């Protein structure tokens, strides 16, 4: 709630699924008005730029963060297929999600709406309502191990060696699974960790905790990925209803 304007949706290691309840969601990539998407479902893949979420002062809906493994389990596709995309359930081809907004609007309480979303997601994870009858292959084990290590701050060369792959092969597999390359994934993961601490610790401590060289390095990275400095984001958008404690990229969790 607040004055009409634009909210920044920051880069993350998860895909974002939004089910608006009062009006279709209008979202675009920052600086790219040609990418505007409007609909009753909004699905965005991993990106290195922020999203611009347009609102009239009040927004209400259900937002889910899907891990890379969650994209496979619920959507039947790798997250890489949706990289840098702003789309919806129709384009993803998931019938159960396509029908969900209308079902949500028929319910009276938030508790009922959340319970319905829970049931639909469980059914999807079990295979009901998936795209047609095509089998949904799982993530390659070495990629799952690599994603955990990269999100934890390990160097790309060390990760490649630990899973028995060349740096180039690891990069190709990670990009196909996520839509970003290993160094980019590590970069976004570090940024997401900083976001979880911003406003709770001094900037210098946030930089030290999250693996930045210093506060100036944190500020440069934040400006590049968020489109504004940490202090501007704190002034304009913190605290925000969507903010939750940061968690690492869990390749085995849906």
Explain this structure to me?
- It comes from Nocardioides faecalis.
- Residues 155-236 form the HTH araC/xylS-type domain.
- This is AraC family transcriptional regulator.
- It is a single chain.
- Helix 3 runs antiparallel to helix 4.
- This protein has helices at residues 68-75, 89-92, 95-105, 110-125, 141-151, 156-162, 167-178, 182-197, 203-209, 215-226, 230-237, and strands at residues 5-9, 15-20, 25-29, 32-39, 42-44, 51-55, 61-66, 86-87.
- The model is unreliable at 128-135 and 241-254 (pLDDT under 50).
- The protein folds into two domains: 7-30 and 39-45 and 54-125, no CATH class; 141-237, Homeodomain-like (Arc Repressor Mutant, subunit A).
- A four-stranded antiparallel β-sheet has the order 1-6-3-4, with no helix packed on it. Strands 7-2-5-8 form a four-stranded antiparallel β-sheet.
- It is α+β, with helices and mostly antiparallel strands and 254 residues long.
Provide the descriptors you would attach to this structure in a database record.
single chain, 254 residues, alpha+beta, Arc Repressor Mutant, subunit A, 4-stranded antiparallel sheet, 8 strands, globular, disordered C terminus, transcription regulation, HTH_AraC
- Count, helices: 11
Give the spatial strand order of the biggest sheet.
1-6-3-4
Secondary structure tally: strands: 8
What would you call the shape? globular
Strand content: 15-25%
Mean pLDDT: 86
GO molecular function, one term: sequence-specific DNA binding
Protein name: AraC family transcriptional regulator
Keywords: DNA-binding, Transcription, Transcription regulation
Domain HTH araC/xylS-type: 155-236
